[in-house]
Amino acid sequence: MGRQLTDLLRRGKYLIFELEGGATLLVHLGMTGHLLLAPEGQPLPPLPHIHLVFHLEGGLELVYQDVRRFGQVLVFPPGVEPAPLDQVGAEPFSPEVTAAWLAEQARGRSRPIKNYLLDGRILAGIGNIYACEILFAAGLHPATPAGRLSRKDWGRILKETRRILKEAIRQGGTTVANYLNSRGEAGLFQVQLLVYGREGEPCRRCGAPIARLIQAGRSSFFCPKCQPQRS
Ligand SMILES: [Zn+2]
Predict the structure, then answer these.
(1) Which of residues 176 and 104 earns the better pLDDT score?
(2) Which of 157, 163, 171, 200 is the most exposed place for a label (fewest CB within 10 A)?
(3) pLDDT by residue (tens digit) across 50-73?
């Protein structure tokens, strides 16, 4: 209470609020969490599932709302390193991340590349939608063992990861299903999804029907022709 916010950072999917005195607040939006900024006192649109309200200086309120409650807000006292950040992989835009480094990390790993990317311990912040789109763009079957990929494959993954994330950030993120913003409008921005959610529809590159595979409990969408399984 009454603490000054000294910095706001991001690592992977965590938003990091650094507070005066050294405490850290970690916010993970989960699948459906939102942080909404609104003038204090102005009645918010009828938003259910408001879990937390921060009263900011200057008459603003920062509201945390989460319909499905997969999100998290965690507080760490001064001097305590937030443990969840230990599990966060490298930032995809970091110049230290190279194809050679990724190939080295994946050496000997038999996990399918889709699960490996989604895990987040190697490259941070790649969710299910983007993992599907990255593998399609790179022409790689989602079940390929991570350790079987060449340095050239990793070069393509890295290039496509950066391109797709950059585009997604530029467009304000990707919304699926029946998302509505705080004014009740449908999501305004939509990265053009080439495979995600398109099972049975024609591939936009070759026309073959998009297939779906369940991997580690998550749907992987891919084109069997553009992303052939390696023998
Ligand atoms: Zn195709």
Answers:
(1) 104
(2) 200
(3) 888 888 888 888 888 887 778 889
Choose between 2 and 100: higher pLDDT.
100
Question: Looking at the predicted structure, is the pLDDT value of residue 87 above 90?
Answer: no
| Distance (Å) from CA 155 to ligand 1 centroid | 21
Going by C-alpha positions, the residue among 125, 110, 97, 112 that lies closest to residue 28 is 125
188: pLDDT strictly greater than 70? no
CA angle 215, 127, 53 (to 5 degrees): 130
Helix axes 151-170, 99-106, angle to 10 degrees: 110
Q: How far from chain centre, in Å, is Cα 142? A: 18
If you write DSSP's letter for every residue of the chain in order, what string do you get?
--PPEEEEEEETTEEEEEETTS-EEEEE-TTTEEEEEEETTSPPPS-S-EEEEEEETTTEEEEEEESS---EEEEE-TT---GGGGG--B-TT-TT--HHHHHHHHTT--SBHHHHHHH-SSBTT--HHHHHHHHHHHT--TTSBGGG--HHHHHHHHHHHHHHHHHHHHTT----TT-B-TTSPBPS-----SSTT-TTSBPTTT-PBPEEEEETTEEEEE-TTTSPPP-
Distance 223 CA to ligand 1 centre (A): 5
Distance 165 CA to ligand 1 centre (A): 21
Contact between 215 and 128 (Cβ < 8 Å): no
pTM of the model: 0.78
